[in-house]
Structure formats: structure tokens, C-alpha cells
Amino acid sequence: MVLGLSISRRYSRVEESSSFSQKRCLAWFREYTNPDDPDTLGPDGMEKFCEDIGVEPENVVMLVLAYKMQARQMGFFTQEEWLRGLSQLECDTIQKLQNRLDHLRGLLNDHNQFKAIYRYAFDFARDKDQRSMDIETAKAMLQLLLGKHWPLYTQFSQFLDQSKYKVINKDQWCNILEFSKTISNDLSNYDVDGAWPVMLDEFVEWLKASRGKSPEIS
Description:
Layout: H1 2-18, H2 22-30, E1 40-41, H3 43-53, H4 60-69, E2 77-78, H5 79-89, H6 94-106, H7 111-125, E3 133-134, H8 135-146, H9 153-162, E4 167-168, H10 170-182, H11 198-210
Antiparallel strand pairs: 1-2, 3-4
Keywords: Nucleus
Subcellular location: Nucleus
Domain DCUN1: 20-208
């Protein structure tokens, strides 16, 4: 009887540690905040958080995690955002989140999830007092999201470097993804009369010229 009670108690402790605890999650959050602003995890705390879970701050999985939290500002998590995302993931410890990192990376392989994360990245990364994203931030985010998957990314980045563009707006941002998914590398299916933003028309002309072709030839 005593043995059964001991096993029961031990099982209860295991069950308690394996189930999600909002209190434990909040205590974990507090490890990364300071007394002056206990409800916000800032850049210093973010650096320690990334170190604890073994992920570089610029790793794309951090963007996916921010998406899960619906974080509003890059480099910051509010208490509300932290609880929203980690409650959904049922993570209240470092190890539990580490065990979910592959799941988070896997979301990028789902077409609809990737599109949602890509669109989210625009508002997440832009300065909140601006409606557009500055070109350097845009290039960094494009590298993160499309660099390994879009064969024309390097050329597009080179085009942006020599272009007049200093910012990218949301319509341009969303169309870059659509372009990367639908237009072949040889541009043979690009419709010059299509409804693409001027930026992408100019990119096509620039790329064709750099390949030694006139802009009219596909």
C-alpha cells in the first residue's frame, strides 16, 4: 500500500513536470527581464534566451517563434506575447522548447504557413513609425526567408544594391514572394504586361541586360 502510494506520488510529480504550467512559464520569462521593466524581454534578455536554447538570434527559427507569439517588435517579447506563444507550444522550460525547435522549423515547409510567416515578417521587422521596411533590413529578411530557396535571390540582392530603392513597401514585399514562387529562373513565363510592381519589372530588365539580352526578349 505504501509502495503504491509512493509510485502514485512519483507519477504525479512526473505528470506535473510534463504538463504545461503558466506559472512556471512566467517564472522562466522573468529570468530574462529586469526589475525596471519586468513585463518586457529586451535585447539583452533575448541574447541570453537564445544562448540558453542554443539558437543564434539571426536563425530563422527565432522568426517562426516570434510569429507564434505574434510579437510586434523585433528584439522584444512582451509577457503577453511570451505566454501566448509558449502556451500554444506547451513549453515552460528550456528543454521543452528545444524539443519543439524542429517542429517550428518544419512550419517553413508548409506552403500556407510559410506565406503567413513571410507576410508577418514585414510588420515584425519594419520600424513601427514607418509604413515601409528599410532596404538593408529587407535584404536581411529576404536572405533569411528566400536565400536558400530562390535561385535568383543573389541577383535580386545585387539589383537592390545598385537600385534607387531605399525602402520596400508591403505590396512589393508580398509580390517578391509570389515572383520567387511562380517565375522560372530563365524568366520565360514572365509577362511584361502582368500586374507586377515596377520594382520587379525593373529587376527583370536589369537581369536580362546583365545576361546580355535586350529587355524585350524573354
